[in-house]
Known about the structure:
By secondary structure, the chain is an alpha+beta fold. It has a domain at 39-129: Alpha-Beta Plaits (2-Layer Sandwich), CATH 3.30.70.330. Helix content is 27%, strand content 23%. It has 4 helices and 7 strands, in the order E-E-H-E-H-E-E-H-E-E-H. The strands form 2 sheets. A 5-stranded antiparallel β-sheet has the order 4-5-3-7-6. Strands 1-2 form a two-stranded antiparallel sheet. Strand 1 (2-7) and strand 2 form a beta hairpin. The chain is elongated and about 75 Å long.
Amino acid sequence: MRKEKENGGSSERLDSIKTVGAYKPKSGIIPRVVLCDPAIQAHRDHMTEHAIICKFMGLWPMERALHVWIRSHWKPKGGIHLHLGSKGFFTVVFTSLEDKDRVFEGGPYFYAVAGLYMRPWMMNFVLEHETFTPVLVWIRLYSLPLDYWLPESLKTIGNKLGHF
């Protein structure tokens, strides 16, 4: 694309570079930064051992509400650090590996009717690439009268439970 620019009565042609949301340096070299600080690797190792990435499905509780929920449902013996992410994701970093293992292996966990998705912390976690797959679950319907034990009734109950 060529543009003409008026400069005191004379015109000169300029080549323009069309970029969207980025700056292209005149040298054509795109700067690159490589971080290989030992402190960064130590932090990654700590997070891998002590952190869990979580999300309540369909619910984005505030930080204070998450702290209250964690204290009342997980009852950690050690400390925790909470890091809020986007799209309802949050990371819980445990000071005690025993707490982390107990919480991660326990469950299922719910905030009202919203189920908690948990995964081990991983380096370079990208929310947009995270996919949620349906899982089969068994439920018990205590005291359900026999006249409701029809395929249509059970399917209706199952579909309703699947939408929480």
